[in-house]
């Protein structure tokens, strides 16, 4: 039986849910709630089922069962083996970490703050300025446009050669409804309650893994195939403004391609339940699991859902500066938790192809 999944993509405004599950927004905004992906009802343990018909997609390089990277940024696949019990693969570890442009990551097990799963506002009352936490400036709201409708996701500016790259989920770049890329994507770093303190940036190019597109196509055609979950990540490059880059404006968060993690802080703009995608919210989990439901995802306790897709799983966070290592991105979840694929060699190759 094919498991349902919920995309963490939310409408950009208050909406009325119809019997069909679609959402009609009040005028004048031509937006509607979008749920292109419905996450599995993730159990707390791996399924071990044998009925799944798997056509596995594999990363650009073979995965390893032991930590072979010199960079020590946490536990490889959270201490689990990479291939899941249902035969799905994650990205393969690469010995490469791009450090944050401001502050220094705190590499240690766990998290240097209290655990939190309710999705409260992150650093409420603190201004979103470059002399505050890197999380408050590099994390922003993505607005996606297709066929006259608008939807939102979350993304984070990372340290990159061009200074113009945001990491997010693949399904925040590729539209399941049209089976094509979104018509237009804009990014508002530091967004809060209608204000974009660092401006609105226009996407000029993007990348998602071919592994994601292949497996997702089978899933959309009705196959019992969750291979897309291991590769639901992507990068977007934005056009500079007056000769300045995103990193010039807000800084760049660190990103790790080692497929390793300690505890994480997840920061984004959820719109599910009582949330409205208007403020930056967070969850913090001391220790991740891996492979729940037989899928190649990290899992964390977190109530954030629609709209949080693309949020970075920030490991090794220094609470004083907001610097850390994005080790995965939010792919699917909600009431059952937050789930996202580890980043590795496939992700890095994609970044290089976009950023060179």
Automatic annotation (TrEMBL):
SUPFAM superfamilies found in the cross-reference section: Trypsin-like serine proteases
Keywords: Signal
Region feature Disordered, mapped onto this chain: 30-82
Biased composition (Acidic residues): 58-73
Domain of life of the native organism: Bacteria
InterPro entries assigned to the protein according to its UniProt record, in alphabetical order: Glutamyl_endopeptidase, Peptidase_S1_PA, Peptidase_S1_PA_chymotrypsin
Keyword Oxidoreductase: no
Keyword Signal: yes
PANTHER family in the record: SERINE PROTEASE
Protein name listed in UniProt: V8-like Glu-specific endopeptidase
Originating organism: Agrococcus citreus
């Amino acid at each position: 039986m094919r498991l349902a999944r919920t995309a963490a993509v939310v409408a950009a405004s208050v909406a009325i849910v119809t019997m069909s599950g679609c959402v009609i927004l009040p005028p004048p905004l031509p937006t509607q709630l979008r749920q292109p992906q419905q996450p599995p009802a993730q159990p707390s343990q791996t399924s071990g089922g044998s009925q799944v018909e798997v056509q596995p997609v594999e990363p650009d390089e073979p995965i390893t069962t032991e930590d072979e990277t010199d960079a020590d940024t946490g536990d490889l696949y959270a201490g689990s083996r990479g291939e899941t019990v249902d035969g799905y693969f994650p990205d393969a570890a690469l010995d490469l970490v791009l450090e944050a442009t401001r502050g220094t990551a705190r590499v240690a097990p766990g998290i240097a703050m209290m655990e939190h799963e309710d999705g409260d506002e992150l650093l409420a009352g603190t201004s979103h300025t470059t002399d505050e936490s890197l999380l408050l400036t590099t994390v922003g709201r993505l607005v996606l446009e297709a066929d006259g409708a608008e939807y939102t996701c979350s993304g984070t500016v990372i340290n990159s050669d061009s200074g113009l790259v945001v990491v997010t989920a693949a399904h925040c770049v590729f539209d399941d409804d049209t089976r094509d890329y979104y018509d237009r994507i804009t990014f508002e770093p530091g967004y809060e309650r209608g204000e974009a303190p660092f401006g609105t940036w226009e996407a000029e190019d993007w990348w998602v893994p071919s592994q994601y597109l292949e497996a997702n196509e089978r899933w959309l055609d009705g196959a019992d195939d969750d291979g897309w979950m291991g590769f639901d990540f992507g990068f977007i490059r934005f056009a500079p403004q007056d000769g300045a880059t995103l990193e010039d404006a807000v800084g760049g968060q660190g990103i790790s391609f080692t497929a390793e993690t300690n505890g994480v802080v997840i920061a984004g703009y959820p719109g599910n339940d009582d949330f409205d995608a208007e403020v930056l919210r967070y969850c913090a989990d001391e220790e991740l699991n891996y492979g729940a439901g037989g899928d190649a995802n990290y899992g964390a306790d977190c109530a954030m859902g629609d709209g949080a897709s693309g949020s970075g799983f920030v490991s090794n966070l220094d609470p004083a500066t907001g610097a850390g290592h994005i080790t995965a991105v939010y792919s699917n979840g909600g009431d059952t938790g937050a789930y996202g694929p580890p980043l590795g060699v496939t992700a890095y190759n994609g970044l290089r192809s976009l950023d060179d």
